[in-house]
């Protein structure tokens, strides 16, 4: 139990639902409701005085709805936001995607009956989500965030170059490459790597956006991703990414061969691996039931098939999934990257990978996509230095 309770601000336009939520949250010694609001504007006005650790909001409210409240909060008073709404049931993939895009960390469907007894049944799950969110680091998100728009001119002019600032990341210095000529397909023969694998958990949807939106339409290798996500939510995330990315985004299907120009996601209820021929297969891997889809299982299968021609990236997330998988890629000679602590929502998974010695590079989130472009298009340094956590 925490030394001090988690301060929660509730925004909900139904007085009945508001009373039920107050009662079940106040029944936990770990949570304290410090403010209630009947619409988004009231909630926004209460933040400076109540100083909530977590904000729980409905979506449909008068004066200011939950989506706009989320956008305003992330621009002015960044806090972890949990959307509690009838509009985030598993079938409502578009609304779920819009909530995550606005800056919400997670969503929690209201019981469909609305009965107090049914809220009591989900009490433990709701309080657990709030506890998790209280430990999440969030970042200010300007109301007009240029990162969320795809790069419409993916290939800079011939004289342009991609640079990683030497002052921040000495391990990635001198990795500056002129990319103007790479638009010629024959020049892709220079590519050493054949696949890019990325894994994430808590905070992953936002992290994936900042990487995948920056990949150009002629990115020369397939991208295979695994994201821990609640059942029913993956389709909305994939649809959102597909609408914004210059590459096609889809859920990997059994029997497919990974192809350049496509970003594949593991399904949400099964593990994704490659068979001995390099085709996608689904599995239920008993050794990895705690995390589904398992990032480690995906990374290990990619390491087995692609060896030193694969790149692995482990992003923000709670726990240790992906750490051993990234080490497998490292051990086969592939290139590995872990997101750094300062830019991670939760530094659990990257930290575990770094502790295993699995990361060649530890980079802030904004630097990962430019670095991947240099590595996908030119040969990497023969002896990359390791930026380890100290």
Automatic annotation (TrEMBL):
The modification 4-aspartylphosphate is found at residue 58. GO terms for biological process: chemotaxis; methylation. Keywords: Chemotaxis, Cytoplasm, Hydrolase, Methyltransferase, Phosphoprotein, Transferase. The active site is at residues 201, 228, 321. Residues 7-125 form the Response regulatory domain. The keyword Hydrolase applies. One of its GO terms (cellular component) is cytoplasm. PROSITE patterns: CHEB, RESPONSE_REGULATORY. One of its GO terms (molecular function) is protein-glutamate methylesterase activity. Contains a C-terminal catalytic domain, and an N-terminal region which modulates catalytic activity. PANTHER family: PROTEIN-GLUTAMATE METHYLESTERASE/PROTEIN-GLUTAMINE GLUTAMINASE, PROTEIN-GLUTAMATE METHYLESTERASE_PROTEIN-GLUTAMINE GLUTAMINASE. This is Protein-glutamate methylesterase/protein-glutamine glutaminase. It comes from Tumidithrix elongata BACA0141. The gene is cheB.
